[in-house]
C-alpha cells in the first residue's frame, strides 16, 4: 500500500501545478448510473482509467465517488489547454482542493491524480 501511495505522491510532485490548481471531483449523492456514465465517457475519451480500476494503485477503498473523481479529473486535466470545463452533465464540479473535497467522501486516494482537463459537452 505504501509503495503505490508513494508513487502517486511522486507523480503529483512532478506534474501538479500551483497549489490553487482546479480539480474536477464527482459530487456525493449522485446516482450510481449517472456516475458510471461520466466514468464511461471519460474512459472512452482517454482518461487514466487503468490506474483507478479494481486492484490498481489509485482504486483506493473502492469508494465510487473517489474513483469517479480520479477518472473525471484525469480527463479534465488532460483537456485544460482547450478550455474544457468540469461538469459531466451535473455529476462533477471544479474545486480548488482535492483533499478537502475527498475528506468528506472517505477517499483513501491520498491526493489528486497527476495534472491532466474535461468536458462532456464538447
UniProtKB/TrEMBL annotation:
The keyword Signal applies. Residues 22-100 form the X8 domain. InterPro entries: X8, X8_dom_prot. Keywords: Signal. Residues 1-21 form the signal peptide. GO terms for cellular component: plasmodesma. The keyword Signal applies. Transmembrane segments: none annotated. It holds the Pfam family X8. This is X8 domain-containing protein. It comes from Zea mays.
